[in-house]
Amino acid sequence: MKPLLRVVLVVNALIFVAFGVLFLLTPWPGLYGALQLDSIRVQPAFAGQLLGIALVGLAWLAFHAAVDGALTARAARVSGHVEWLSGVVVLVWLLGLKTPQVDGFGQVSAAVVGIVLLVLGLGSVRLSSAVRRRERAAQAGAVSAQRAEKKAAQKREDARATSTSPLSRSQPVGAGSGRSLDPASPISPPAVRAHPDGAVDPVTGGTLDPATGHAVDPITGRRIEPVISGEIDPATGRRVDPLVPGAGRAPR
Fold it and tell me: What contacts 108, CB < 8 A, 6 or more positions away?
């Protein structure tokens, strides 16, 4: 639709140029006499020339807007309003009021000129309005697409930051442990805490012999041998046989 509006602007520019040149030649009475337009010649002559300059300026604006897409709709709207209003004035004065008096050929010419100006002007206004609505819709769509693209980019950045954070890659080892472990790394045993007299068992809290890893009695400091059953004499550090009373106990 915009190419059609450009064509209409070129036609409007040609019409403005034609009338502008005609009014610029207002001081030439012979030309108006040959065209049988003596009755509509502007007096004084400089007023006609001023009107001609204004029309030539409108023609230049219409030509420029036909090339520059940013001015096409607005210039077509302005030139359209100028044209249809001029057509109405021509039809009312020359055909309705018959002022000034013109002959038959002049009346026909005035009627044709008025109708052409009216049709072209209204067509330019409607086309410019349609093109303007399409441009606004395209701008709104571009703004919406830009906002959607920004939101999508922000979501991608948030997802990338979440996937690369250490907390997102760790999983809980068990309920109540309060620790998390990277699934890619093997499960390691609990760390043994260092102690001046030996290692400390993280489960029981007892002291372990650093050489053998066996438990050490916290009272006597003797190593406790791992047994299936029975008890250890704290004095000798040996297992007491439950079947032999007093076995393994230190003599008193």
Answer: none
Q: How distant, in Å, are the alpha carbons of 99, 103, 192 from that of 139?
A: 49, 53, 68
Per this entry, what is the length of the chain? 252
Q: Are 222 and 214 in contact (CB under 8 A)?
A: no
Report how far residue 172's alpha carbon sits from residue 43's, in angstroms, rounded to the nearest whole number.
Answer: 99
pTM equals 0.53
In whole angstroms, give the CA distance from residue 129 to residue 78: 11
| CA–CA gap between residue 111 and residue 113 (Å, rounded) | 6
Residue 144: CA atoms inside 13 Å, Cβ hemisphere, count? 6
8 A C-beta contact, residue 161 and residue 107: no
Contact (CB, 8 A) for 241 and 249:
no
Q: How many whole angstroms separate alpha carbon 11 and alpha carbon 120?
A: 9
Which residue ranges make up each domain of the chain?
2-158, 193-252
User: Averaged in consecutive runs of 10 residues, what is the pLDDT profile of the chain (252 residues)?
Assistant: 86 92 90 78 88 93 88 89 92 81 74 90 90 83 84 84 66 47 50 51 64 66 58 64 55 48
